């Protein structure tokens, strides 16, 4: 009964898999937020380094991972694949459940998989400082780690409520050398505008993105870094699925269903896209994204052009969206509270190649606790959505008496999220209804786009 399927360091993938050439339709253009017209690569050079802009639109199926990036990946990659024997037993299911564990990275999630190459390409392009936003701090800590490794300065705008509530991730960022600023701040016009209207504003991810983008475009030596959503971020995360495929070969299995939680779409893309390549080649595999029912972008959003941020400074993209001024309820899976979704994942959902399902917060915490008691690892609240999805699939396999193979991505550990578990275990957590009225109001404010 083998439990861990491990690869050697020489089996870290040499190339990322780019899904763009395998898409059913060409990519929709990215739209400039000020003009409403397609943005040119020149519009993006003040925001991102050239190599990342190239990757954003590349039609090359395989993109080489630079050696300095693979060298840092060696600190935690290849990440282990586990067979969840004990969870299977607890569920009494004939299904074989496998999980890829990304919590082994120094920051405790999958996010360093893209933070490291982003810092590397910025270093190559002569960037001196990175500006970014963070909600609960998973992205901020990952980019702080990566920036430090390549000798870049790093400024993180951290959503103000989280700055107060999540002191440990703030400490991690500071330990790795980043400057952490509670957002909204008086550093930027976007922040000052929000503070003038409401000095007590708790902030939001959308506002923090606006501050970080403004910081980058107003400083010559500074570029912006985004932890999810964009094509190049999804690309970098494919190391997850590429490794998992090799590891499943060691187990002599191929998945019937591949599952990831979905916030902006990057860890889901990471586990799912390499299997999508097989699906495009005719293989029978389901690929399933699980999102919170209180922020149901893929299952209840509109597939249309919308701003990436609240202040309408970030580019407009075609994606599933709940509207850029939609403010999701304060669920504990902070990393899944985003109004939009990756344009790549969105197109694949729209085309019916990827399935999406929404699940409630309490059901996810129940699954997370069951998982932790069986398998030991305490999952991040975000990852608990993938666990819930896997448990539902495993129970269905039990009902049908089928020996299904289920693979899910355990995107991170929950060691810095124990207050959430405290609240769940003491019965203080609630489910949130789908805020239908707020979504409808927000979807009334979509941008006008000229193609
Ligand atoms: C940020 C985060 C997510 C959500 O982001 P995606 O881009 O959708 O992957 C999921 N899990 C963990 C552990 C995270 O830190």
TrEMBL record:
Residues 75-412 form the Tryptophan synthase beta chain-like PALP domain. The modification N6-(pyridoxal phosphate)lysine is found at residue 111. Keywords: Amino-acid biosynthesis, Aromatic amino acid biosynthesis, Lyase, Pyridoxal phosphate, Tryptophan biosynthesis. Pfam families: PALP. Its EC number is 4.2.1.20. It comes from the Bacteria. GO terms for cellular component: cytoplasm. Pathway: Amino-acid biosynthesis; L-tryptophan biosynthesis; L-tryptophan from chorismate: step 5/5. Tetramer of two alpha and two beta chains. PANTHER family: TRYPTOPHAN SYNTHASE, TRYPTOPHAN SYNTHASE-RELATED. Belongs to the TrpB family. This is Tryptophan synthase beta chain. It comes from Anaeromyxobacter dehalogenans (strain ATCC BAA-258 / DSM 21875 / 2CP-1).
């Amino acid at each position: 009964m083998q439990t861990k399927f491990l690869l050697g360091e020489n089996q870290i993938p040499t190339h990322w898999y780019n899904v763009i050439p395998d898409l059913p339709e060409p990519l929709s253009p990215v739209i400039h937020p000020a003009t409403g017209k397609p943005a040119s690569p020149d519009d993006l050079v003040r925001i991102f380094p050239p190599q990342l802009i190239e990757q954003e639109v590349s039609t090359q199926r395989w993109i080489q991972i630079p050696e300095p990036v693979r060298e840092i990946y060696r600190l935690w990659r290849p990440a282990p694949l586990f067979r969840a024997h004990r969870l299977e037993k607890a569920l009494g299911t004939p299904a074989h459940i496998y999980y890829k564990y990304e919590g082994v990275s120094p920051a405790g999630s999958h996010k360093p998989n893209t933070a490291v190459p982003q810092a590397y390409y910025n270093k190559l392009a002569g960037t001196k400082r990175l500006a970014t936003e963070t909600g609960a701090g998973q992205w901020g800590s990952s980019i702080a780690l990566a920036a430090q490794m390549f000798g870049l300065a790093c400024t993180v705008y951290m959503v103000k409520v989280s700055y107060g509530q999540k002191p440990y991730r703030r400490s991690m960022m500071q330990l790795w050398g980043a400057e952490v600023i509670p957002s909204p701040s008086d550093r930027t016009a976007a922040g000052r505008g929000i503070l003038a209207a409401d000095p007590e504003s708790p902030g939001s991810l959308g506002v923090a993105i606006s501050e970080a983008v403004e910081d980058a475009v107003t400083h010559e030596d500074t570029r912006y870094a985004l932890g999810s959503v964009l094509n190049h971020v999804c690309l970098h995360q494919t190391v997850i699925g590429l490794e998992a495929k090799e590891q499943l070969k060691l187990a002599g299995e191929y998945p019937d269903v591949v599952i990831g939680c979905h916030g902006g779409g990057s860890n889901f893309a990471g586990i799912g896209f390499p299997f999508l390549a097989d699906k495009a080649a005719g293989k029978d595999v389901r690929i399933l994204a699980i999102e919170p029912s209180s922020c149901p972008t893929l299952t209840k959003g509109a597939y249309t052009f919308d701003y990436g941020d609240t202040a309408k400074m970030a580019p407009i993209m075609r994606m599933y969206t709940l509207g850029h001024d939609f403010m999701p309820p304060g669920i504990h899976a902070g990393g899944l509270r985003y109004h939009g979704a990756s344009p790549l994942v969105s197109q694949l959902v729209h085309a019916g190649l990827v399935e999406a399902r929404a699940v409630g917060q309490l059901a996810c915490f129940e699954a997370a606790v069951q998982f932790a008691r069986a398998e030991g690892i305490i999952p991040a609240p975000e990852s608990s959505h993938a666990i819930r999805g896997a448990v539902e699939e495993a129970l269905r396999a039990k009902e049908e008496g089928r020996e299904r193979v289920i693979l899910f991505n355990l995107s991170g550990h929950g060691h810095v999220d124990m207050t959430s578990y405290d609240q769940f275990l003491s019965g203080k957590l609630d489910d949130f209804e789908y805020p239908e009225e707020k979504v409808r109001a927000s979807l009334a404010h979509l941008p006008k786009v000229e193609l």
